[in-house]
Structures are given as structure tokens and as C-alpha cells.
Amino acid sequence: MADKKADKKIGEVVHFFDKILVAIVKLTAPLKAGTEVKFKHGDNEFTQTIDSMEIEHKPISAAKKGDEIGVKIKQAVKEKTEVYLV
């Protein structure tokens, strides 16, 4: 029986484009495409795999701490929504 370690916060949503469902996430830890993350704001949360991400409209496969990345997400989020590794 494996213990599930506590989710690690890796960033926070600083902006959200509602028409195209893209969140701008300021990272506090590195992130690679293909990683499953959880978006959490109060009682509202959902998980999804990061299929693609961009910096200044250029596709990237990995981002480092301090980067602000754009990620396509499956539902609306608010600014200050926290992002965790799953």
C-alpha cells in the first residue's frame, strides 16, 4: 500500500483568457508537458494533463521556476487559482 504524498504546489494562475480557455501560470517549480496537475481555488478543483504549453506564443516542452506559461485547460479558472502536481 503506497502512501500518497501531499500535493506539491508548483504555481498560481495570474491571468485567464475565458474565450480560449487558456490560463497564464506563474511557476514556482519546473513543469514538463505531459504532467498531470490539479487546479484548486476554494472548493472548486479539477485535474488534467498538461498537453501543451507556451511562452510568448511559442510552444515549449518544459518550463522552469519563475516562468509564466500559457496552458490550455478544460474549464474556467479564477486568478489566484493554485496549481499542484498530482
TrEMBL record:
Protein name: Translation elongation factor-like protein
Organism from which the protein derives: Candidatus Beckwithbacteria bacterium CG1_02_47_37
